Amino acid sequence: ESEHFRQRLKSDEARAALTAFMTRKKG
Q1: Distance from C-alpha of 25 to C-alpha of 19, rounded to nearest angstrom
Q2: Residue 13 and residue 11: Cα distance in Å, rounded?
Q3: Is the pLDDT of residue 25 over 80?
């Protein structure tokens, strides 16, 4: 279960980073 939580956390982190990247790109 802990592994699943870690995987989801990593996914959320990646999504947040991608969103921030896109936002910055749009400027």
Answers
A1: 10
A2: 5
A3: yes
The tokens describing 21, both together, are 């990247």
List the domain boundaries for the chain: 1-27
For the segment 2-14, what is each residue's pLDDT rounded down to a tens digit? 999 999 999 999 9
At 22, list the tokens: 């896109």
Q: Which tokens hold the place of 1? A: 């279960």
Q: Which H, E and C letters describe 1-27, residue by residue?
A: CHHHHHHHHHHHHHHHHHHHHHHHHHC
For CA atoms 6, 1, 4, 20, the dihedral sign is negative
